[in-house]
Amino acid sequence: MTYKELDLVLGEVHAACLMGMEQVIAADCNLQAAEATARELGSGHILVTQQFAKAMIEHNIKGGSIVNISSIVAKMNNIGQANYAATKAGIISFTEVAAKEFGKFGIRVNAIMPGYINTPMSEVVPEKIKEQIVVCCPMGRMGEPTEVAEVIAFLASDKSSYVNGAAIEVTGGLK
């Protein structure tokens, strides 16, 4: 692939793995835990966005799109997820700033905030909790990965050519 073929950068280097993340209650949050979570979940977005934006600018690529993956937890602030929620909220702020800075070069930067999606990450959530999520969700179910992918594809397409700096919820209406 050459830079000229690059239209979309998905600003997600990896998915968060709840199996490896301990619950972090805000009152018990220590600086090392916060720094580790920020490094694990946030730094990749920054580095990928920087590198691909620089490459698009250097090669005068207009109409490029960078899509960062945040989480609805950035807004819902679940108990026991202080570090995760703060980091995912930071991704939204970073996306908004990057959109302002790179927009003048014809590069759009947006984020999506998936809700509870049927993925390996959600498999570790206890069944009782998933049932509560489904009851609270206006759509009455958890989302599918393809539904998230469709939103990413839209943000990567020319159909979203005036969408810049947005954080789009893919939650089935769960708030």
Automatic annotation (TrEMBL):
One of its GO terms (biological process) is fatty acid biosynthetic process. Pathway: Lipid metabolism; fatty acid biosynthesis. PROSITE patterns: ADH_SHORT. InterPro entries: NAD(P)-bd_dom_sf, Sc_DH/Rdtase_CS, SDR_fam. Keywords: Oxidoreductase. GO terms for molecular function: oxidoreductase activity, acting on the CH-OH group of donors, NAD or NADP as acceptor; quinone binding. Pfam families: adh_short_C2. It comes from the Eukaryota. Belongs to the short-chain dehydrogenases/reductases (SDR) family. This is Estradiol 17-beta-dehydrogenase 8. It comes from Eumeta variegata.
